[in-house]
Structure formats: structure tokens, C-alpha cells
């Protein structure tokens, strides 16, 4: 009989997932670093397109954290 226990998520993977989840939060808190008008992109001030870029990057970070912490083998 084979061992069917689900693979455990290692501490290193949990730490990497934590970094991926914390990075966007820290960027959003650093408003003074991106509260400026130039450079402009398609007529939008830096402040706006930088935030929009991080909305997309946040989705990528959350997806990466999910992939790092999901269990293999269909177990929940």
C-alpha cells in the first residue's frame, strides 16, 4: 500500500509566500515615493499609472503565493 498523505508546505515556501503577500502592501504604504506627476504615461500622471500597475502586480503576487502554498494530490 502506498503512502497517500499530502505533501506538506515547507517553511521556506511559506516565507516566500509571505514576502509575495507583503510586498504590494508595503508599496501601497509608501505613497510619498510615488506621489508625483511625472513621468506621464499616455497622459496619466505617475501617481495613477503606478497604482494601476501595482493592482496587476498584486494579482500576480497573490497567484504566486497560492501556487507556493497549495498542497499537491488534491487534499484540502
UniProtKB/TrEMBL annotation:
It comes from the Bacteria. It holds the Pfam family DUF3311. The chain crosses the membrane at residues 15-35, 47-68. Keywords: Membrane, Transmembrane, Transmembrane helix. This is DUF3311 domain-containing protein. It comes from Actinomadura litoris.
Amino acid at each position: 500500500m502506498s503512502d497517500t498523505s499530502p505533501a506538506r508546505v515547507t517553511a521556506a515556501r511559506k516565507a516566500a509566500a509571505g514576502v509575495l503577500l507583503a510586498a504590494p502592501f508595503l508599496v501601497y504604504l509608501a505613497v510619498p515615493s510615488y506621489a508625483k506627476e511625472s513621468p506621464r504615461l499616455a497622459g496619466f500622471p505617475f501617481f495613477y499609472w503606478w497604482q494601476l500597475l501595482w493592482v496587476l502586480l498584486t494579482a500576480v503576487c497573490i497567484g504566486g503565493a497560492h501556487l507556493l502554498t497549495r498542497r499537491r494530490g488534491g487534499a484540502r
